[in-house]
Amino acid sequence: MDINIDILHTSELNNYDNALAIKQAQKKYDKLAKKGKDPLAVAMAKKQLEDTLLFSDCFCPGYHKGFTDNVEGVLFSNQHRLIKLFDSVFPYEKVARYSINGVFQDKAYTTTKNKGGVGRAIIGGALFGGVGAVVGAVTSGSRSQTVQYQTQTGFTLHIFDGGGNCLGGVQMPGEGLFNDKIPKSFNRIAFVLDAIIKENQDKADIQFDGE
């Protein structure tokens, strides 16, 4: 697969005006600074405002055709070469790899059969270790059987540095009837991350050859 690192050096990728978040961060900082009662809260609000200003014009993978999904908190700034993953901000140069994994929920349903042969099912969500496990029980005048299984609810995406430390992550529902398709937003994030990782590897190779 060809990876185009040129997208990291152009403003053409930018699709998002972060004006609303900047306005909200500025309002929060001004309010706390005016009161001046909590220096720590003021410092944190100032840091939030400074971080938000770095992404005044950026790429938002969750923004598409005028709509945003719940990865709106993931932003890329080519100008400052920074990634904002909700409350975490880190430079492109730290990114070494990423992973996309499915999220599953354990569920179970119980079928009870009485002496007379009439059966009924009780379905609910629970936490069980096994998948497709069958558990039987016999009570006075009835026999019950519980089947444990898993359903997919979505996906997680995590970004790691060269030491294997997680720089941040995001989770969202999957697409499709069974939530088993990777969200388009994740594909757009992966598109940019692939370019960042390729550029970092190329720089590392050049540095190695020069030693």
Write a concise keyword list for the protein shown above.
alpha+beta, five-stranded antiparallel sheet, single chain, 3 helices, 211 residues, three-stranded antiparallel sheet, 28% helix
Structure, described:
This protein is α+β, with helices and mostly antiparallel strands and 211 residues long. The chain is built from three helices and twelve strands; from the N terminus they run βααβββββββββββα. The protein has helices at residues 19-35, 39-53, 184-210; strands at residues 16-17, 57-58, 63-64, 67-68, 74-77, 82-85, 88-91, 97-114, 119-125, 133-139, 142-160, 166-173. Strands 8, 9, 10, 11 and 12 form a five-stranded antiparallel sheet that branches. The chain has a three-stranded antiparallel sheet with strand order 5-6-7, with no helix packed on it. Helix 1 runs antiparallel to helix 2.
In short:
The protein is an alpha+beta fold. The chain has 3 helices and 12 strands.
Summarize the biggest pleated sheet: 5 strands, antiparallel
Could you state the order of secondary-structure elements as H and E?
Answer: EHHEEEEEEEEEEEH
Global outline? extended
Q: Which runs of at least 5 residues are low in confidence (pLDDT < 50)?
A: 126-131
Structural class: alpha+beta
Count of individual beta strands = 12
How far is it from the N-terminal to the C-terminal residue, by CA?
Answer: 29 Å
Q: Looking at the chains present, what oligomeric state does this protein adopt? A: single chain
Strand fraction equals 35-45%
Rounded mean pLDDT score: 85
* Structure annotation, total helices: 3
Percent helix, as a range, is 25-40%
Rg measurement, Å: 24 Å
